[in-house]
Predict the structure of Nudix hydrolase domain-containing protein.
Amino acid sequence: MTYQVHCTHIVRMNGLRLPDEFLERIQDFEAGRRQPPALKHASTVMLLRDRGGRLEVFMIRRVSSMAFAPGVYVFPGGGVDPRDSEYDQPGADWEAWGEVFGADAGLARELVCAAVRETFEEAHVLLAGPSPDEIVKDTAPFEADRLGLLDRSHSLAGFLEARGLVLRADLLRPWGHWITPTVELKRYDTRFFVAALPEGQRALDVSTEADTVVWIRPQDALDQVKAGEMAMLPPTTAMLNDLATFGSVAEVLAHQRKFTAHQPTAKIVDGIPYLVLPEEAEHRYGA
């Protein structure tokens, strides 16, 4: 979510060429003249559906006017809101989530709640229902609530309580963990989730930060990145690489995922700044 690099700039296996502006910044970090910004926890959700016998994922393109990563395709998501900690579902095993995330139960709860909230804010998909085994079929009646979450006049806990809804953490699966390299001006500690599009709901183009939305096969998205037709950030292409190996939503949700944190590093090689990707998260593209 944080690397302002187009994946078409790959020049060597496991490395991305960075803009020249990063050269001085990397030198400052290496010399101890600059300290990395504090990390902000964030959640991102890959919404999935089966269409025509194919697995598709929902993506949004950030508007060109954004100061950070304009024109880049991403999944719905964003930073944890301090009030995400206010919601506590009876019977929820936050400790188990924490074991997966490598976090305490409190942070795990915030990450799950942020995942549900951000998916609703940016895609109008609500992973909640009137009971622990039901889910909302139509999100249209909750549009005012969504806008309240966006402008922060509502909290997720307040919205769910007022509407008599229960958060459905069981519909989410943990999928990936990426940490922004220290050289970036904004840094996120991001957990990626997968979730099936609930029956009866539609993912909509409602994000104020997006100008285009698309349902697309993971491999088709990767092919467009390679062809220079779509711009994406390294964690996004890494997640798509993983999804491209599955044929259906059921296969994805049934997969027992190994949860490993990945953090690229910035280095200068022969006077040129590069973002070096972790070996275990190698992108499957040629130079």
